[in-house]
Amino acid sequence: MRFLFVPLLASLLISQLTGCSPFNSKPVQDSWTLSGKIGITTPKESMAGFIRWQQQQDNFDIYVSGPLGQGSTRIQGNPQQATLTQAGKTSESLNPQQLVYEQLGWFFPLENLPYWLQGKQAPNSPAHITSKDGKLSRIQQDQWTVELLRYHSYYNLPERIKIRQGDWKFLIVVKNWSVD
What pairing do the DSSP bridges indicate for beta strands 46-56 and 135-141? Predict the structure, then answer.
């Protein structure tokens, strides 16, 4: 019994010293899709619409539309490049986050979102996490605060996610999760 306890204690101590968390031990899903509603507040405006996010490994396909399908935007790519299509016009960039800001005026944390949407901290930078009932409830990372307000009972994935930094706020309410 002592031989099992010492390695377990050592791994817990190392994970605490390196900033890793036992709450982040679930593997990141390679392929998933979510659909739901999104609310966006920028320093200049507020808007609401629908979102469908499909993730396959590093590749994303994000479709956001206004009420009744008006004002749709599609963002496709990966961390190294992306295209954004809106009103029949397509723009490309090697920096997806910059592309979204230039074309939409949104400071949207694209690199971290695939992790945050799954209720995990992104692996690229340190994070401060808070848990409740064995699940992450708050992630503070890269000057953003992510509040995981409600989880899906079957998939154990977030259903209500608030993301904010200063005057930039996003509320995502997931209606459907599909995990491959």
Answer: unpaired
